[in-house]
Amino acid sequence: MNFNKMEPIVLSSSDLYEYFQCANEGGMRYSSKTDTLLLITKSSGTSSLKKNFYADKWDETHSRFYFTGEGRIGDQKLTRQNKRLAEYLTNTTRLLLFEQNAANSYIFYGEVILDGNFEKSMQPDSNGQMRMVYLFPLKIIGNMDQDFLIKKQGNINLLSIHELKKKVSQESDISKFIKQKKLPQRIARSPYVVELARRLADGICQLCKKNAPFISKDNKPFLEVHHNEWLSEGGSDIIENAIALCPNCHRKIHNLRDQKDIDICKKSIESYNLSSNS
Ligand SMILES: [Zn+2]
Ligand SMILES: [Zn+2]
Question: Which residues does the UniProt record annotate as the domain ScoMcrA-like SRA (predicted)?
């Protein structure tokens, strides 16, 4: 599967457990601690590994991956992780795609979105009987392709600040993973960090301390979210590194990189109340 030219990132089962705190078994591993769903397909024809039971496949153009839902006997049901995946656009879970190519070896493809509605198909079950399965179309996203942010935005707007804080703290393990494995292109910026930084700023630029210049179409004060330590220079996509700025200040800080401005941003960040009880 040669869909990108980057060096493969290979993780072990214990890496998966350490970073995501997910179960050790199964093709769909959900972790409530990090609110991520790991989707694991198996390479076909690897001698050290049993053949993939499910007929997962790429489409002709290699732009979409059809991932088969869970359930080995009889018709699959829209419960558990199948349900969570089907409801991707209205829940807060993030999806990460892996290919298991040996007993303890998982190639990380990147963050994926559910790219359209699931389809129904027929595949044999573990007794060899044909039965109905769900096929979920997935698309790998990168930093430049953040359509899912917009799709999920409606849902993010509905989260209380308490829920946002909880979500952002759940994601800190993912941020750690991204940083340690140096993965900026393979995972999208967290939409939750962006939204929380805006909510904490409450319509006020955190550098010049003036009101946002206008109210945007979606009825929110227009502020941009900046990473104080730049992502391109190894900064983390965590709330402790994110700050909402007016467009002028955002330009200024990128253009001048004035240490005084950076320090003001740092101070603002230190004054965040991140306790999820408030
Ligand atoms: Zn400003
Ligand atoms: Zn910036």
Answer: 23-144
